[in-house]
Task: inverse folding
């Protein structure tokens, strides 16, 4: 196994407030890791640091050996890191198809002049993008809704479309920010199956943030517990469930179902 | 009957020859109308203004509609194009001997404006919305006062005696080019990038869109065509001064864009046409003629205080119209919708055709 994503001594401050203090991560290729922690533990901040929305105040983040700190979000994304958002952030007024097509920006290999005159590589590249977008929509059973405006989709489909859009980047690493938010236990079961399936189908390494213990304990191979930006514990689900520090800080007292 | 008509209409829109044929007919008309005086000189003049305004509205829509920014700089780009083109035809190019050099002057005006568009794009990386509006307004004022303070180009007096080189065929040519290129831009990865910036800039960046590059390109394309329109405008009006390109001019273009509808080329064409014709109809003599049936008791004071001063009232009415449109009709006539013929076939079909998944299917 090789390390895909590595974070070393990452610290981040908002003004004087330390949002992330000494964050370390070693994510192996092919692994499915979960990050848990109470509200305000800095989980989403970590995603924002990895994807370049924030620039880490200190430390290094490496993806496949490439330093990410200092790169812009689109540069980092083009290295094949896809992500979804805690609150769905689709392009709401655009069509389902266009949502997925937009994520092909970095892969579409043609120049502004070719775009202005619709010449050269424009045609071939656009056809390839459409084909790949439709393939993704079919896989996610959204193909009949290609022309629909994204805002009109029901919640569950919006979540699916967001994942389809993230996969359009062609990611090696997928970051899922609370994929089970707003789902009932039945839907969470389906989601767990679904995450395992896309991981296999698209050969992904997955890092996910989640509050739903059922999902985290059910599918993650390793779990990292954060509190106030610091790693409280890390290990396989069984070890985390029995770690007294974790029980105290996050899961509360008593056994967890 | 209506169903039959609709079927014919659908069939017509699917034909590849439709747009080329329409453009060809347009060109024939554009040559024939002035040649054989098919329409009187005044209507021809209005037609040319309609064309120039279409170029302005379509290009501004790229930034204010598709990208969702609020730029007030458009009249400034127009000024740069107008002055560049006018100086070239008057002082540099041997236009008297070779009138065919005119498009070169217009093109240079467009390029000069595009270069300045780069400058305006830079603040758009940092700020959005109201703040960008203020910065572009400042840019407009800078352009105006710079021109006012250069004696060589006439200062506040402007440049009189520009040759009348703008003709109906040239206006039509540039209208077609601007619509075609803005449409090509919109239906490319850059155009989709522009749309995604309007929707959610951070998400756009995180979907690999190089937002800076996209903004550069959008501002440059938009200002390029504002410069083209400026060059045509200068050689139609035959006189330009800094006052011509003030905030009122920008307001005019804004009304055309928002009235016609954001993120729609069809909308901008409609908006520009309606607005230009409306301004022509609302001249004191026309309005007085239209209202002459009113009893003298009403008509005389109305004429005295309002109709005769319509030129001044315009400064109140038009901005008010902009406010009303933005408040009560923010999407305008064609907001976010497009005439089917403008959408590339590939794009239209991609939204309908169903495909069978090649690899697995989700559980």
Result:
């Amino acid at each position: 196994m090789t390390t895909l994503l590595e974070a070393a001594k990452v610290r981040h401050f908002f003004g004087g407030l330390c949002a992330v203090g000494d964050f370390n991560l070693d994510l192996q290729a092919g692994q499915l890791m979960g990050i848990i922690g109470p509200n305000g533990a800095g989980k989403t901040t970590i995603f924002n640091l990895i994807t370049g929305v924030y620039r880490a105040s200190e430390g290094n983040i490496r993806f496949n050996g490439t330093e990410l700190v200092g790169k812009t979000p689109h540069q980092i994304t083009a290295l094949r890191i896809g992500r979804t958002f805690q609150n769905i952030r689709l392009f709401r007024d655009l069509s389902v198809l266009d949502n997925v097509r937009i994520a092909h920006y970095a892969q579409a290999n043609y120049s502004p002049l070719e775009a202005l005159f619709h010449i050269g590589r424009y045609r071939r590249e656009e056809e390839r993008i459409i084909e790949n977008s439709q393939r993704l929509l079919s896989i996610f059973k959204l193909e009949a809704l290609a022309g629909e405006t994204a805002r009109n989709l029901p919640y569950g489909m919006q979540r699916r479309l967001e994942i389809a859009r993230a996969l359009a980047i062609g990611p090696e690493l997928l970051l899922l920010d609370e994929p089970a938010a707003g789902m009932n236990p039945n839907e969470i079961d389906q989601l767990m199956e679904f995450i395992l399936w896309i991981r296999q189908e698209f050969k992904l390494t997955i890092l996910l943030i989640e509050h739903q213990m059922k999902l985290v304990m059910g599918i993650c191979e390793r779990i990292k517990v954060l509190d106030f930006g610091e790693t409280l514990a890390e290990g396989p689900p069984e070890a985390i469930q029995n770690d007294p520090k974790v029980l105290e800080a996050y899961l509360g007292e008593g056994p967890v179902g | 009957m209506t169903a039959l008509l609709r079927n014919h209409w659908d069939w017509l829109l699917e034909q590849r020859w439709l747009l080329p044929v329409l453009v060809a007919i347009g060109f024939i008309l554009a040559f024939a109308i002035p040649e054989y005086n098919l329409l009187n000189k005044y209507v021809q003049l209005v037609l040319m203004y309609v064309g120039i305004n279409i170029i302005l509205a379509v290009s501004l829509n790229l930034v204010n509609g598709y990208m969702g920014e609020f730029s007030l700089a458009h009249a400034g780009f127009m000024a740069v194009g107008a002055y560049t083109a006018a100086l070239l035809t008057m002082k540099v190019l041997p236009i008297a001997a070779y009138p065919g050099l005119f498009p070169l002057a217009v093109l240079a005006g467009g390029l000069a404006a595009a270069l300045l568009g780069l400058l305006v794009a830079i603040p758009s990386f940092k700020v959005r919305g109201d703040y960008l509006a203020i910065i572009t307004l400042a840019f407009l004022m800078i352009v105006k006062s710079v021109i006012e303070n250069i004696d060589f180009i006439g200062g506040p007096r402007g440049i009189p005696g520009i040759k009348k080189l703008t003709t109906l065929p040239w206006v039509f040519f540039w209208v077609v080019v601007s619509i075609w290129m803005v449409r090509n831009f919109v239906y490319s990865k850059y155009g989709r990038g522009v749309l995604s910036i309007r929707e959610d800039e951070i998400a756009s960046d995180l979907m690999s869109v190089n937002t800076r590059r996209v903004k550069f390109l959008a501002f440059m394309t938009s200002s390029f065509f504002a410069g083209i329109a400026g060059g045509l405008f200068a050689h139609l009006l035959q006189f330009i001064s800094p006052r011509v390109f003030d905030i009122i001019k920008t307001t005019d273009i804004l009304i055309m864009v928002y009235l016609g509808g954001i993120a729609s080329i069809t909308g901008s064409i409609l908006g520009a046409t309606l607005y230009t014709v409306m301004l022509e109809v609302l001249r004191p003599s026309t309005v007085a003629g239209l209202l002459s049936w009113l009893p003298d008791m009403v008509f005389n004071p109305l004429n005295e205080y309002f109709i005769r001063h319509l030129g001044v009232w315009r400064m109140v009415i038009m901005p008010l119209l902009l406010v009303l449109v933005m408040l009560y009709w923010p999407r305008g006539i064609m907001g976010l919708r497009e005439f089917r013929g403008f959408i590339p076939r590939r794009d239209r079909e991609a939204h309908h055709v169903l495909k069978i998944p090649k690899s697995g299917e989700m559980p």
Summary: Chain A touches chain B through 60 residues (CB under 8 Å). The longest helix of chain A spans residues 122-139.
